[in-house]
């Protein structure tokens, strides 16, 4: 007697989908292939039922690393299509940048605005928005060098305005390194309702 995958209970099928389609680390489709990550997206080509069941789990349960240029982010959303953008819950990006902040200009760069606009229009069910550690370290360094609390507060409020413009986002996570250049910066971040997640930076031999 032949075996049909669809004869399995839906709970069992979902467990199998999770094993072959969900990765513990954020997925960066710009840099990593599914084979390298140990995932099996080819499963989605089995039939329409599997495609419908598995794709929603793939996009809802993975964290997507979109720390990439704005045109690459827009291309990613075009490739996956509206139906697959809808289930996405978790995205990781670079911390937005202020190219002329040293001159008192609190205008976000076009790259950052483009990325946030793409997310806003493509992910109506987003739950968490995370900024990656290297980019958070850079902005902390910039604020610390400026040494101007007013500019720091105003800039973070500007970023928060763009973050909160993505209506469904429930949690904003700022990944940082344990080394803290300025307590004031992180206090201001926390005052905006952002969650700070710190870890020690890896030290390499000879450093």
Question: How would you summarize the topology of this molecule?
Answer:
Elements: H1 10-21, H2 34-37, H3 48-61, E1 63-65, H4 70-85, E2 90-93, H5 110-122, E3 128-131, H6 133-146, H7 149-164, E4 171-177, H8 183-191, E5 195-199
Parallel strand pairs: 1-2, 2-3, 3-4, 4-5
Helix pairs in contact: 1-3, 4-5, 7-8
Question: Can you describe what's shown?
Answer:
With 207 residues, the chain is of the alpha/beta class. It is 47% helix and 11% strand. The chain is built from eight helices and five strands, in the order αααβαβαβααβαβ. It has helices spanning 10-21, 34-37, 48-61, 70-85, 110-122, 133-146, 149-164, 183-191; strands at 63-65, 90-93, 128-131, 171-177, 195-199. A five-stranded parallel β-sheet has the order 1-2-3-4-5. Strand 4 (171-177), helix 8 and strand 5 form a beta-alpha-beta unit. Helix 1 crosses helix 3 (48-61). The longest helix is centred in the middle third of the chain and has 16 residues, at 70-85. The radius of gyration is 20 Å and the shape is elongated. The protein starts with 9 loop residues before the first helix and ends in an 8-residue tail after the last strand. The model has no long low-confidence stretch (mean pLDDT 88).
